[in-house]
Amino acid sequence: MSTIDLPAETTGPDQDRPRAIASPRSAGDRRFRRITGASGSLSLVLMAVIAIFLLVNGWQALDVAGGSFFTTFEWKTKSEPTEFGVAAMLYGTAVVALIALATAVPIAVSAALFINEIAPRRFRGFLTGLVDLLAAIPSLIYGIWGLKYLQPQLFSTFDWVADWLGGFHPLSADQRVFGGSLLMCGLVVSLMVIPITTSVVREVFAQAPPYEREGALALGATRWGMIRTVVLPFGRGGIIGGSMLGLGR
Q1: CA dist., res. 24 & res. 65, Å (int)
Q2: Do 215 and 169 touch, CB atoms closer than 8 A?
Q3: CA 152 to CA 150: how far, in whole Å?
Q4: What is the dihedral of CA 83, 95, 159, 134, to 10 degrees?
Q5: Model-level pTM?
Q6: SS3 letters for 25-54?
Q7: What does the alpha-carbon distance between residue 210 and residue 232 come to, in Å, rounded to a whole number?
């Protein structure tokens, strides 16, 4: 009887390593890669050109104002001596963005969970379309509505609450520096952030693996337990990405 020697079965990291695609890229792939690389590089070049243009044309103002340009809240260019700076703009932008995110992200995550996990199926399409429609409204419309309608309605209320809190700055409005309440601006911006963030987060939550959902429920988890242990951890990246996309708006 003859015997056949079989190669020994190998085990180790080399066996588990995924195979690399060794086939060369086609001409279309190489052309597409060059086009996308050039497009991305063009964006960086444009940003660099804009930064250089602003630096060259604004150097005279920086030379006159010095470092106080970034720490001065006043903007008096018609009086003598002139006094101007961008501190109010930087501070206002940061405070408004923080207020908007702190208000919008919890609401957006809750709305996305409600649409995907709680709302009846026959209403999910309507709610999804409504959120997408709100996300498509231009930011200018929200800004005009907040300036012309919301601010006159709530300005006196915010000032009264600010006085009651001892002059709480985000609620009050220093007319010498800011044209309105920072909290009011943050609320208006949050209305712009909520729809786009909800849309992105909802799409990510919908991609949570069904077998993990079913496994959690099969082990006795409640609906909230399944959401807390499966959906939310899976969608953490989507929450961050949606928040940054909304902040960019």
Answers
A1: 58
A2: no
A3: 6
A4: 120
A5: 0.69
A6: CCHHHHHHHHHHHHHHHHHHHHHHHHHHHH
A7: 14
Name the nearest CA neighbour of 192 among 123, 89, 96.
96
How far is 178 from 188, CA to CA, in rounded Å?
A: 16
Residue type, 197: T
Alpha helices in 146-209 (DSSP H): 151-164, 182-206
**Residue 53: what residue type?**
F
Q: Which of 119, 144, 145, 121 is nearest to 198 (CA)?
A: 119
* Rounded Cα gap, residues 42 and 17, in angstroms: 37
pLDDT digits (tens, 9 = 90+) for 37-90: 898 899 899 999 999 998 888 787 777 767 777 777 777 767 777 777 777 788
**83-84 and 75-76 beta bridge pairing:** antiparallel
Among all chains, which residue has been given the structure tokens 């106080």? 68
123-146 average pLDDT score:
87
CA 125, 193, 137, 148 dihedral sign is positive
Tally the C-alpha atoms within 13 A of residue 229's C-alpha that lie toward its C-beta: 14
Average pLDDT over residues 207-232: 88
Which amino acid would we find at residue 101? Answer: L
Other residues' Cβ atoms within 10 Å of the Cβ of residue 179: 11
How many CB atoms are located within 10 Å of the residue 96 CB?
Answer: 21
Residue 222 pLDDT exceeds 50: yes
